[in-house]
Amino acid sequence: MADYPSSFDRDDLLKCARGELFGPGNAQLPEPPMLMMDRITDISADGGAHGKGHVLAEFDITPDLWFFDCHFPGNPIMPGCLGLDGLWQLTGFNLGWRGWQGRGYALGVGEVKLTGMVRPDRKMLTYKIDFTKAIQTRRLTMGVADGIVEADGEVIYQVKDMKVALSES
Hints:
Layout: H1 10-17, E1 39-44, E2 54-60, H2 66-70, H3 80-97, E3 103-108, E4 111-114, E5 124-136, E6 141-151, E7 154-167
Antiparallel strand pairs: 1-2, 2-5, 3-7, 4-7, 5-6, 6-7
GO molecular function: (3R)-hydroxyacyl-[acyl-carrier-protein] dehydratase activity; isomerase activity
Organism: Pseudooceanicola antarcticus
Subcellular location: Cytoplasm
């Protein structure tokens, strides 16, 4: 297990986006505006509902976020796919945080439920990810997790069997 802290601020996340946190060729977050969180408040390899690891993170919502102007003019809503991408980003971050090598990529998701919307008057999204599997073998490095996104405490997105892998190629 690598020796990283259990929480990260925005500057730390930007270091990860530049490839400076886990090293070249390893898990990397996207840069803004595609970086879908402002802080990770807690992360583990053995916590969460299944004892296989978890991530808690937050994203501050402001009316000037880039997607509100284009999705949709006169009816601004954060695209649901961006919330899903935030969950994938954090799942991959957890694999890099464990010290596992390789670049992250999403493999898919088993089930997605969108039950609410993010409008410009919301203040904060909270991501909650619980790993159901974390696999590292000679041939495969992968995390499988369930996740939810809350907007100001209301569950608005739920996913099951989200998969992210790391590859050294």
